[in-house]
Design a protein that fits this description.
single chain, about 725 residues, mainly beta, eight-stranded parallel barrel, 5 helices, about 10% helix, DUF342 domain-containing protein, membrane, transmembrane helix, transmembrane
Length: about 725
C-alpha cells in the first residue's frame, strides 16, 4: 500500500479549514436571523401588551361615565330627559365623552318609562403608541317619580299607586328556575336580605335592598344597590354594585363597577373599577382589576393578577404584576412584593420586596430595596437603603423633597328607602262586584255594579234537576226551610224559577263554590266576570277565571288553575261574554252568563275597558280588623297561571311549574312572621306580550290615598337595562 505524500496531506488539511470556516459562517448567519426574529416577535408582543393594558383603563373610564350618566338621569326632570339629544357635557374627567343616541317614552308598564340610549367613550394613554379607546353603548330605563293618581271606576273612585316588578318587605330567597321575560325584566325592591343562589335565575335587572345581598350560581344581575353587604360568588356577574356596607367577590365572579361605603375584598374574581371609602383587600391570586380608588388602605396579598391604577389615602401593599402602565398613588407607605409598578407616587416610604421594580418613583420618605429586581428609577426625600449594594437602582436622594398627593374624596352612598304599600282587602270591599260572606251558616252574596243582576244581597242556592240540566250556584232571595247543608248552600224557593248563576262547575249538575272551616273553595270551569271578594281564606283549584280574586285571609292555588285579571282579559271577554281560548264551556253554560257583565270595567259606547287599577290585580290577600292584620299569605301551586298582579299582605310562595304575568308584592304586614319569602320551582314572569289594556304596575290604593307614590322620594328610578361595547 502506497503512503500519501506530504503535499497531498497538506492540501486536504487546507480544505478542511475552509469547510470549518464556511460552517461557522452559516451557523452565525442562522443565529443572527433567529435573533432578529425573536426581537421582532418580542417587540410585537410588547406593543400588543401595552395596547391591551391601555384598554383596561379605557374601559374603566367608559364604565365610570356610565355611572355618571345614570346619576344624572336620577335627578333629571321628565321634561329634561325627554329633550336629551346628541353630546352631553361631562366635566372633571379627561378622555370621556357622552352622546345621547335616542330617548323613547313607554307607558306599557303602567307608568311613564323613558328608555335612554347613550354612547360613552373612554380614552387611555393618549398621545402614546399605546393609545386606546373603549366605546360603551348603555341603555337606561328611567322612571320619573309618579306621585299620586286617581282613577274613576264608573261610580266610585279608586286611587291608584305604582309598584315595581317584585316588591318584597321581608327577606327573599330565590331558588329553582326563575325566568323573567320582556318588559324591564325583574326589578326587585326588598326590605330585608336577598339571596339568589343554587338556582338558574335569568332576567333579573336590578336589586334594591335595605339588607344584605348574595348572588351566586352564575346568575347575572345588571345592578345591585344595598344598604348592607353584597357578596357575589361562583361565576355570578354584576354590571354595577353599590353597597353602604362591604363587598365580597369570591370564586370567578366578575362585577364591572363596585362602589362601597365599607371595604371591598377579592377572594377571587375580577372587576373593572373599584371605589371604596374603606379598605380594598385582594387575598386571592390571579385577580385582575382595572382601577382602585379608596379613602383607606389597599392590601393586595394574592400573587399574580394585576391592576392598572391605585389611588389611596392610606398605605398600599401590592403583590400583583405590572401591566406596563400600573400607577400607584398613595398618601401612606407603599410596599411592592410582586412584579412592581410602572410608577409610584407617595408621601410615605417605599419598600421593594418583590421581583419587580419601579419605572418612575416619587417618594417623600425612605426607599428600602430588599430583593433583587429590575431596578428602581426616581427621586426620594428620605434615605436609600439596600439589602445588598449590588441591587439595581437609579435613584436621586434629595433631602427635604416633598410629594403632595391629593386626598381621595368619595361621596358616601345614600340609603335606599322602600315605602311599603298597605294591602287591606277590607278597603276594597265596596269596589267588589260580588261579596261572599257566611251569615247564620248560609252563604250570602252581595252584588253591585253588575249589568243583568239587580244590586242587592242574595243567598247562594240550587234548584232541582229539570229540563235536562242541573241548577247549581244560583242566586235567590229565599231558601227552603231546613234545606241548608254543611257547605252553606240550600235549595232556592224564591224566585220559583232559576234566575242567575255566578259559578260554573264541570257540568251543570256540579257546584263550583263551597265553604267550610273558614275557607272558600272554588273548583270548576269558570266564574261570573268581575271583582270577587271573600271573607276568609280562599282555595282556587282548577278552572279558568276572568276575575280579580280578593280574600281577607290567605289564598292558595292548585291544580290546572288559571286566572286573568279583568284588564288582562280585555273588553270582549269581560263585557260581551266572549269565551277566550283555553276556556271550555258548553253552550248552556255560555248562555247562563249572557247579558251579565261588570259595569265598573265596561264602557259600552266606546267598546273599551274603563281605566280601573283594581282590574290589574289577579290575586290579593289579607286585611286589617281593628288595627290587627291577619291572613295575607298567597301560595301559588303547580300548573297555576296568574295573568295579573299578585298582592300578598304578608307572604308569597311559589313552587312547581307556575307562571305569573304581573308584578308581585309581599308586604310582610304580619310582623310576627319572620320566615323569608320563597320563590322556587319553575317560576316564569313573562312581560313580553302584555295586552295594551293591562298595566301591571298600577294597583288600587288601600290606605293613606291622599298622596302616595312608589318610592317615597323625589328622585327617579334609573337602571341600566343592558350594555355592549361598540
Amino acid at each position: 500500500m502506497s503512503t500519501p505524500s506530504i503535499a497531498s496531506r497538506a492540501a486536504r488539511s487546507r480544505q478542511r479549514g475552509v469547510m470549518n470556516l464556511l460552517l461557522v459562517l452559516l451557523i452565525g448567519l442562522a443565529m443572527t436571523v433567529t435573533s432578529i426574529g425573536v426581537v421582532h416577535v418580542m417587540r410585537s408582543s410588547q406593543e400588543g401588551q401595552l395596547s391591551l393594558h391601555a384598554m383596561t383603563p379605557a374601559q374603566q373610564s367608559a364604565w365610570t361615565g356610565a355611572e355618571i350618566v345614570r346619576r344624572y338621569l336620577v335627578v333629571a326632570s321628565a321634561d329634561t330627559i325627554a329633550k336629551l339629544s346628541g353630546p352631553l357635557q361631562v366635566s372633571g374627567l379627561s378622555g370621556l365623552s357622552v352622546s345621547i343616541v335616542s330617548v323613547a317614552k313607554n307607558t306599557a308598564s303602567g307608568s311613564s318609562v323613558y328608555r335612554v340610549v347613550a354612547n360613552i367613550a373612554g380614552a387611555a394613554a393618549t398621545a402614546t403608541s399605546a393609545s386606546s379607546t373603549a366605546t360603551l353603548q348603555v341603555v337606561y330605563d328611567v322612571t320619573p317619580n309618579p306621585g299620586s293618581s286617581t282613577t274613576g271606576n264608573g261610580g266610585s273612585t279608586t286611587p291608584g299607586v305604582n309598584i315595581s316588578t317584585i316588591n318584597i318587605y321581608k327577606n327573599l330567597n330565590m331558588t329553582g328556575g326563575i325566568t323573567v321575560l320582556g318588559g324591564n325584566n325583574a326589578n326587585l325592591n326588598v326590605q330585608g336580605d336577598v339571596t339568589l343562589d343554587n338556582a338558574s335565575i335569568t332576567g333579573v335587572n336590578s336589586i334594591n335592598a335595605t339588607g344584605n345581598v348574595r348572588v351566586g350560581s352564575g346568575i347575572h344581575v345588571n345592578q345591585i344597590y344595598s344598604n348592607g353587604d353584597v357578596t357575589v360568588t361562583g361565576s355570578a356577574s354584576v354590571n354595577q354594585i353599590s353597597a353602604l356596607g362591604n363587598v365580597m367577590v369570591d370564586g370567578g365572579a366578575n362585577p364591572f363597577v363596585i362602589t362601597a361605603n365599607g371595604s371591598v375584598t377579592f377572594a377571587g374574581g375580577s372587576a373593572t373599577a373599584v371605589t371604596a371609602i374603606g379598605d380594598v383587600d385582594v387575598t386571592a391570586g390571579g385577580v385582575s382589576i382595572g382601577s382602585i380608588t379608596t379613602m383607606g388602605n389597599v392590601n393586595w396579598t394574592g400573587s399574580g393578577g394585576s391592576v392598572s391604577s391605585i389611588k389611596a389615602n392610606g398605605s398600599v401593599t401590592y403583590a400583583g404584576g405590572s401591566t406596563g402602565s400600573t400607577a400607584i398613588t398613595a398618601q401612606g407607605d407603599v410596599t411592592l412584593t410582586g412584579g412592581g409598578a410602572q410608577s409610584v407616587t407617595t408621601s410615605g416610604n417605599v419598600n421593594v420586596n418583590g421581583f419587580g421594580g419601579i419605572g418612575a418613583l416619587q417618594a417623600q420618605g425612605n426607599l428600602n430595596i430588599n430583593a433583587w429586581g429590575s431596578g428602581v428609577t426616581g427621586i426620594i426625600g428620605g434615605t436609600l437603603n439596600k439589602a445588598s449594594p449590588y441591587m439595581s437602582s437609579n435613584v436621586q436622594v434629595s433631602p427635604g423633597f416633598t410629594v403632595s398627593v391629593p386626598a381621595v374624596a368619595i361621596t358616601p352612598l345614600q340609603q335606599v328607602t322602600i315605602s311599603r304599600p298597605a294591602i287591606d282587602a277590607y278597603a276594597l270591599q265596596s269596589s267588589a262586584n260580588y261579596v261572599f260572606q257566611v251569615v247564620n251558616g248560609a252563604i250570602q252574596v252581595t252584588v253591585a255594579n253588575v249589568v243583568g243582576i239587580q244590586a242587592g244581597t242574595y243567598y247562594l242556592g240550587s234548584y232541582p234537576f229539570s229540563n235536562g240540566r242541573g241548577y247549581q250556584d244560583f242566586l235567590c232571595t229565599q231558601l227552603v226551610t231546613g234545606s241548608l247543608n254543611s257547605n252553606g248552600v240550600g235549595q232556592c224557593s224564591t224566585p220559583a224559577t232559576p234566575g242567575n248563576t255566578i259559578c260554573q262547575g264541570q257540568a251543570t249538575e256540579n257546584d263550583c263554590l263551597s265553604y267550610g272551616n273558614g275557607a272558600w273553595t272554588v273548583s270548576g270551569r269558570s266564574f261570573a266576570r268581575g271583582v270577587l271578594w271573600f271573607q276568609g281564606d280562599l282555595n282556587l283549584s282548577n278552572g279558568y277565571y276572568l276575575d280579580t280574586a280578593i280574600a281577607t285571609g290567605s289564598i292558595t292555588t292548585s291544580g290546572s288553575f288559571r286566572i286573568d285579571a279583568p284588564n288582562y282579559a280585555g273588553y270582549a271577554e269581560m263585557c260581551t261574554n266572549s269565551t277566550p281560548s283555553g276556556m271550555t264551556l258548553d253552550p248552556v253554560q255560555v248562555a247562563d252568563f249572557n247579558g251579565v257583565y261588570p259595569s265598573t270595567f265596561c264602557n259600552a259606547s266606546s267598546q273599551s275597558l274603563l281605566d280601573n287599577p283594581i282590574g290589574n290585580v289577579a290575586l290579593l290577600a289579607g286585611g286589617y280588623v281593628n288595627g290587627v292584620f291577619s291572613g295575607g299569605n298567597i301560595t301559588v301551586g303547580a300548573s297555576s297561571v296568574i295573568n295579573g298582579s299578585v298582592l300578598a299582605g304578608n307572604d308569597l310562595d311559589t313552587g312547581g311549574s307556575t307562571s305569573i304575568n304581573g308584578f308581585i308584592t309581599a308586604a310582610a304586614q304580619n310582623t310576627s312572621d319572620t320566615q323569608p319569602v320563597s320563590l322556587s320551582g319553575a317560576t316564569l314572569l313573562n312581560f313580553s306580550q302584555l295586552p295594551s289594556s293591562y298595566n301591571p304596575g298600577s294597583v288600587p290604593c288601600m290606605q293613606s290615598c291622599a298622596s302616595t307614590n312608589n318610592n317615597g322620594s323625589n328622585t327617579n328610578a334609573s337602571i341600566i337595562r343592558w350594555s355592549r361595547y361598540l
